[in-house]
Amino acid sequence: MIFTTRDLGVGGDLGITKKLEMQPLTAEQMQQFVRAYLPEQGEQMLQHLGDRLREFGETPLLLLMLCSLFQATGDIPPNLGLVFRQFTHSYERQFRQDIPVTDESRRWWFALLKHLAFHMTKGDKLTELNVAIPRTEAEDVLTQFLEAEKFDRPRDRALKWLQDLLNHHLILLLCVG
Q1: Has residue 5 been placed in a domain?
Q2: Which site among 49, 104, 136, 152 is 20 to 30 Å from 127 CA-CA?
Q3: Are 31 and 54 in contact (CB under 8 A)?
């Protein structure tokens, strides 16, 4: 079995004896990745990034997001928050187009995700965040949100739109136990 975690930092090792640590990409590896992913635009993107390459590209996923955005727009957002936001919008529009979804559902995705994210920041303590919540809790949170927005059949919509978010990989269902 393989388990992955973020650095626990608070001590403890979960009793795992054999550990591997993922290292950030080197500047050379990042440049190779960009040139391979964008053979026509790679040099232009690297020049555009300049000194921000280290900040934006230490992980392959972030680098992939940046390359995808640059390929589509020819530009790099000024900060990581905008990278995530613009990539999510682009991903949502282009990916999984074969899965039917109503325009109404798609229009509400941003608000639904924002509401779920806000709910997850409210842990038991002021400094506690929930990185995952049970599906039933997500269903309840979205139902209450849609009730407040005066939708008819808010529970039905919450269940359907939550499934749309899952189908389009905008949220993930974790299987525990």
Answers
A1: no
A2: 136
A3: no
Identify the domain containing residue 90 by its residue range. Answer: 27-94
* Torsion angle, alpha carbons of 5, 10, 15, 17, to 10: 70
pLDDT digits (tens, 9 = 90+) for 50-73: 888 877 777 788 888 889 889 988
Q: Is residue 134 part of a domain?
A: yes
- For the stretch 130-168, what's the b/e string if a residue is b when 16 or more beta carbons lie within 10 angstroms of its beta carbon? eeeeeeeebeebbbebbeeeebeebeebbeebbebbeeb
Q: What domain count does the chain have?
A: 2
Asked, for residue 15, whether it belongs to a domain, the answer is no
Percent of the chain whose pLDDT exceeds 70 = 82
Q: In the chain, which ranges are E strands? A: none
* C-beta of residue 40 within 8 angstroms of C-beta of residue 13: no
Residue 64 buriedness (CB in 10 A; 0-12 / 13-18 / 19+): middle
Question: Is pLDDT above 90 for 161?
Answer: yes
Q: Do 78 and 123 share a structural domain?
A: no
Q: Is residue 20 part of a domain?
A: no
90 exposure class (CB count in 10 Å sphere: 0-12, 13-18, 19+): middle
